[in-house]
Amino acid sequence: MSKNFIFSSESVGEGHPDKVADYISDSILDACLAQDPKSRVACETLVKSNCVFLAGEITTDATLNYEEIVREAIREIGYVNDDDVFHADKVFISNILTAQSSDIAQGVDAAEAEGKDTAEQGAGDQGIMFGYACTQTPELMPAPVMYSHRLLREMARQRKELKVDWLRPDVKSQVALEYVDGKPVAIKNVVISTQHAADKKHEEIRQFCIEEVIKKVLPAELLTDQTEYLINP
Fold it and tell me: Which helix (H) or strand (E) holds 116?
C-alpha cells in the first residue's frame, strides 16, 4: 500500500437527527440508572419533522416522566429557536416503550447454575467493534476524524457560549488530509455544512466558519494556500 494518500473523515454535530435520537435514548438510560442501577434499558428513538417516537423495552424500578426527559434533552441540544420546526417545547412525542418481554428476561435474569458458586447472568445482546489507535493526535485517534470533531465542538461552543444566535444545532464537518510517507503534511479541504437562520447571507456564514472556526481550531501548519474551504456547498 502506498504511503502517499489523501484520507478524509466526517463528523456530525449534536443537532444532527442521528445524534438527537441517540442523546434522547442516552438521557432515558441515565435517568433509569440514576434511580435504579440494575435497570435494563433497550430504548430506541426516531425523530422526524416535529415528532419524536420512543420504542423498545425497559425493565426498571425507576419512576420516570419520559416526556420531560425528551424535552429537556432537546433543549440541551439547542432546538429552542422560534423558527425551529423541531422545537423542545412543541414536538409531538409518541411513547410505546414497554417492559422487557418475559422470554428475553428468562434468558438474561441471573440464575443459579449447577456447579457454579455464583448465579450466572445471560447477555441480552451482542456487538462487534473494531478500530485502531495511533499517535497522530493526543486522543490517539486518526487526525482527520479528530479535526472534524474539533470543528463541531467549536461550532457548538460559538453557538452556546458565545451566543452566535444565527447558528442552529444541525451541522456536519469533513476534513481531508494529505499524507506523505505515512505522515500528515497538509489539509486538502475542509467542509462545514451548518444549519442557520434563514436571513443569514452565505458570504457571512462562509467568513465566520473559516476565520472564527477553521483557522482557530485546525493546525496552522497544515492549512496552506491550496487548502479548499467548502462552506454549505
Answer: none
**Quick one: how far is CA 200 from the chain centroid?**
25
Q: Determine the topology of domain 17-108 in CATH.
A: GMP Synthetase; Chain A, domain 3 (3.30.300)
Question: Which grid coordinates belong to 209?
Answer: 466558519
Query: pTM for this structure?
Result: 0.85
CATH fold, domain 5-13+132-231, is GMP Synthetase; Chain A, domain 3 (3.30.300)
Q: 70-99: per-residue pLDDT in tens?
A: 999 999 999 999 999 999 999 999 999 998
- Checking if the pLDDT of 114 tops 90, the result is no
Burial profile 78-114: b = 16 or more Cβ within 10 angstroms, e = fewer: bbeeeebebbbeebeeeeebeebeeebeeebeeeeee
Q: Report the alpha-carbon distance of residue 210 to residue 65 in Å, rounded.
A: 42
pLDDT tens-place string over residues 128-182: 777 789 999 999 999 999 999 999 999 999 999 999 999 999 999 999 999 999 8
In the block, residue with C-alpha cell 442516552: 26
Q: Facing residues of 179 across strands?
A: 5, 184
Instruction: Spell 1-10 as b/e; 16+ CB within 10 A means b.
Output: eeeeeeeebb
